[in-house]
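WARN  no MSA supplied for this record, continuing single-sequence
INFO  ligand: iron/sulfur cluster
INFO  echoing inputs
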Amino acid sequence: MKRAKIADIFFSTQGEGIYAGEPQLFVRFYDCMWNCRFCDTSLNAYEKYTPIELYNQIKRFTPLEKAGEGIGKSSLAGFTQEYHSLCLTGGEPLLYKDFLKQFLRLVKYDGKTTYLETNGILAEALAELIDDIDIVAMDLKLPSSTGMRDYWKEHSKFLKVALRRNLFIKMVICLDTSRDDVDQAIRLITRAKASNIPVVLQPNFFELSKDLLARTREIEKYCSRQLKHVEVIPQLHKITRIK
Ligand code: SF4
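INFO  complex generated
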């Protein structure tokens, strides 16, 4: 089994999307093959884990009283708060499909809620893992926001699979985000009969300004004509400066 490169394991509060404010245990995968202009993840170190090694690491974050351990037995003593879900983030976690297959089985055996943050591109990998994922936070990459090529076909396939679980969609809005891209995103969502799925518009933190917030609000109004739940939610962890 190929080991996964893990950049970080930490307890914090979700700062994005409709679960913002929920306590989560984050596992940050190191690799990503894309290059979004607004990417805020700069990773330069990792440790390699097998699925069982990673599982043993995250078990150390189990509330101590539940685990039957005394305070002081773990270097993580003090982390007694239960977390809402285990957040797999990156990088792009789905690049580690085979690893995740084994890892998620272990985690689900313990009854943990699993939350996947993903760029919404790797549909085949998602299809193999979807039964063990509870919540999907799916990015829709608008080319005028990312500066990359479009991924409409990939997103369309991905959405069909992701709809099997608890799903919300996130789009990063930049000053350059085009109306054409927003139209294309609305079409893609309505064609998949997903217009009742929550859609979060996230203003690009690096351009955060009155102008960008006003533009994001305009796009929210525009999308709301065809989509039922559209919300503007900035990255709260950035604003509050928590990890
Ligand atoms: S897919 Fe995610 S991690 Fe990769 S470059 Fe884009 S924003 Fe960054």
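The longest strand covers residues 4-13.
INFO  checksum written, moving to next record
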